[in-house]
């Protein structure tokens, strides 16, 4: 069925289901969603059954939006909103989403802004036409979130046209002949870094992740004939924001890709932050990334965010659903339903099958599943991590040891995920008096990444949401945390003789502000370097972990030799990756149990070991492919 025939069918279904009293002005595609514009939005809102019947009749996602002609000018609408909402609601921001006809009102007292039985919202809706939504203001304002919102408003018309093109492409007619499905390993198999896969069917091509290799300049095998030309890709799906999964996506827009990128809303914002910082860091190190900031803006413009459990068509024969992966904010397991019940495959990205200080454990219950692609970062036989409680105790002992010797603690962290968990543990230890209260400095992107966490509380675990929004206890807002916002502040910290803790990027010590602290503090035996995450082969973090005691930094013309006399500690329990036991349990308790498991995202020995163990214990087909291998699934 072509896009034209789908729209024709949509008009027929609408005529049969929608009462004649409701005026329909336009029906069109926006991405894979059939959007129905009306001048009688309230009547739709009062009858949810109509939308349900439309979705069932069309077998597609349906959205009902106000016709643009009934929407007040944004400036006038904002004045009207502020005139209606009481001052005690403390409105902090109002932003309009022209694509949906919604206006989001952020307020410190959302109940006051809503009014008794929604009276204030109803008054706003009647006076401006926009559909109002009230949310609690994030406790830490995010510059990234604000700028992305403003940018998307500025390219509203371009984005609308883009979504129409996506809708037409998704709803194109299928080819005839035998159906088949296969997956190609383009990066991140028998290694950690440059994650990239290509899911191919008779009718479509979908790229899953496209990352950099933090330990080298290697990139995914994008010159493989099945990948080129990039214009033929139907979609790019991003499991999460870390650069080893998202760091090369802007370059795809530089070299010809112009299609959609599917990810969760936090992933869009987080990967934007990380990619922009990667450009900044590379220029500071006299290196060049294969893209610039305009390519990141193209990526933002083409992002189609999906929430967990939300299913959408991304190709004529492929539907995508995201499920919680438990790794970092917004990290998702991508589940693909291919054809009309032909095949189901899920790609985990990075997962954590344990409730952490921030997130619920990864989902392992799916409606249907034949093949699972799973990570093996800590999949080796001896890879058993301490519990979160043990990690907290170990962190306490490290802090006490350093402070008792008047030493400083340097913790290289990924800005997203590990830093926030480490912050929560340190805050708890200092609040309870288990360790002395000292300054905890946040350098690099950690402050902004933390702000993005507070903008998406629905992606945090239920206990943390309750703590923040019902009890008013936000560990991220503790006065122990200080922001390093300038070179002068950094120099002040370096020169200060008093003990302190610094959390700084990058987590693998392959660049970033962490290097300034390392150069200054490495020669002093009383200081401690604490790793709380994975260090890939080739990175300075891995070399220091293995015992390197002398580091040469800088360039060949003017090298700096740094003597490493400080202690190097590893606190494993903070990892966002599942360990060997958790990975085995993830498969053991999975429903339904897949027929085949493909193992990647791990060193070669760990991929092979984990694949063998899954086969021996659960009797299923397992593979640990090399990069550039293709596996036929159906």
Overview of the structural elements:
- The protein has about 625 residues and is α/β, with parallel strands linked by helices.
- The chain has four domains: about 5-70, GMP Synthetase, Chain A, domain 3, CATH 3.30.300; about 75-135, K homology (KH) domain (GMP Synthetase, Chain A, domain 3); about 180-380 and about 575-630, Metallo-beta-lactamase, Chain A (4-Layer Sandwich), CATH 3.60.15.10; about 390-575, Rossmann fold, CATH 3.40.50.10890.
- The strands form six sheets. A seven-stranded mixed β-sheet has the order 12-11-10-9-8-7-28. A seven-stranded mixed β-sheet has the order 13-14-15-16-17-26-27, covered by helices on one side. Strands 20-19-21-18-22-25 form a six-stranded parallel β-sheet.
- A hairpin with an 8-residue loop joins strand 7 and strand 8 (about 195-200).
- It is globular and about 80 Å long.
- The model has no long low-confidence stretch (mean pLDDT about 90).
Q: Please estimate the helix content.
A: 25-40%
User: What is the total tally of β strands?
Assistant: 28
Tally of alpha and pi helices: 21
Any idea what the shape is?
A: globular
The CATH first-level class of the largest domain comes to Alpha Beta
User: Unreliable runs, pLDDT <50, ≥5 residues?
Assistant: none
What is the structural class?
A: alpha/beta
Q: Write the CATH architecture name of the largest domain.
A: 4-Layer Sandwich
Q: In percent, how much strand structure appears in the residues?
A: 15-25%
Number of domains: 4
CATH topology of the largest domain: Metallo-beta-lactamase, Chain A
């Amino acid at each position: 069925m072509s896009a034209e025939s789908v729209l024709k069918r949509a008009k027929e279904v609408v005529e049969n289901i929608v009462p004649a009293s409701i005026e329909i002005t336009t029906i069109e595609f926006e991405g894979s969603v059939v959007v129905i514009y009306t001048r009688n939005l309230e009547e739709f809102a009062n009858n949810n059954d109509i939308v349900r019947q439309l979705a069932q009749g069309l077998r597609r996602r349906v959205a009902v939006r106000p016709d643009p002609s009934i929407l007040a000018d944004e400036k006038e609408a904002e004045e009207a909103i502020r005139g209606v909402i009481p001052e005690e609601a403390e409105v902090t921001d109002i932003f309009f989403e022209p694509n949906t006809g919604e206006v989001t009102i952020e307020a410190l007292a959302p109940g006051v802004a809503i009014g008794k039985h929604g009276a204030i919202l109803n008054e706003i809706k009647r006076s401006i036409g926009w559909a109002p939504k009230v949310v609690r203001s994030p406790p830490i304002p995010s510059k990234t979130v604000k700028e992305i919102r403003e940018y998307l408003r500025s390219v509203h018309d371009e984005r609308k046209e883009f979504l129409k093109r996506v809708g037409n492409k998704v709803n194109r007619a299928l080819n005839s002949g035998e159906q088949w499905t296969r997956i190609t390993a383009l990066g991140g198999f028998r290694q950690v870094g440059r994650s990239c896969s290509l899911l191919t069917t008779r009718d479509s091509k979908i790229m899953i992740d496209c990352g950099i290799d933090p330990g080298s300049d290697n990139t995914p095998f994008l010159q493989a004939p099945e990948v080129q030309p990039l214009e033929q890709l139907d979609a790019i799906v991003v499991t999460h924001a870390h650069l080893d999964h998202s760091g090369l996506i802007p370059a795809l827009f530089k070299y010809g890709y112009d299609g959609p990128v599917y990810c969760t809303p936090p992933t869009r914002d987080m990967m934007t932050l990380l990619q922009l910082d990667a450009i900044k860091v590379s220029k500071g190190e006299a290196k060049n990334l294969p893209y610039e900031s305009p390519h990141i803006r193209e990526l933002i413009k083409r992002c189609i965010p999906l929430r967990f459990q939300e299913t959408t068509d991304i190709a004529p024969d492929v539907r995508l659903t995201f499920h919680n992966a438990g790794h970092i904010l917004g990290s998702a397991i991508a589940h693909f339903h291919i054809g009309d019940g032909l095949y189901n495959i899920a790609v985990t990205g990075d997962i954590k099958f344990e409730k952490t200080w921030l997130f619920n454990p990864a989902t392992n219950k799916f409606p249907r599943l034949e093949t699972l692609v799973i990570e093996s970062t800590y999949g080796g036989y001896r890879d058993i991590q301490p519990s979160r409680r043990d990690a907290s105790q170990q962190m306490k002992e490290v802090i006490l040891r350093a402070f008792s010797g008047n030493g400083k603690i340097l913790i290289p962290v990924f800005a997203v995920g590990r830093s926030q968990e480490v912050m929560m543990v340190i805050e708890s230890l200092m609040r309870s008096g288990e360790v002395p209260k000292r300054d905890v400095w946040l350098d690099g992107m950690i402050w902004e990444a933390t702000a993005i966490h507070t903008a998406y509380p629905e992606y945090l675990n239920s206990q943390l949401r309750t703590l923040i929004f019902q009890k008013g206890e936000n560990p991220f807002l503790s006065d122990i945390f200080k922001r390093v916002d300038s070179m002068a502040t950094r120099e002040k910290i370096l020169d200060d003789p008093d003990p302190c803790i610094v959390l700084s990027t990058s987590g693998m010590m392959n660049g970033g502000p962490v290097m300034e602290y390392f150069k200054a503090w490495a020669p002093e035996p009383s200081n401690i370097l604490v790793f709380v995450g994975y260090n890939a082969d080739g990175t300075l973090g891995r070399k220091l972990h293995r015992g390197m005691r002398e580091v040469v930094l800088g360039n060949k013309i003017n090298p700096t030799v740094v003597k490493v006399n400080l202690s190097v500690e590893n606190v494993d329990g903070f990892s966002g990756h599942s360990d060997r036991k958790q990975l085995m349990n993830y498969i053991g308790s999975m429903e339904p149990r897949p027929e085949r498991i493909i193992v990647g995202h791990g060193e070669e020995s760990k991929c092979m070991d984990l694949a063998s163990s899954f086969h021996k214990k659960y009797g299923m087909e397992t593979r640990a492919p090399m990069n550039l291998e293709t596996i036929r699934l159906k």
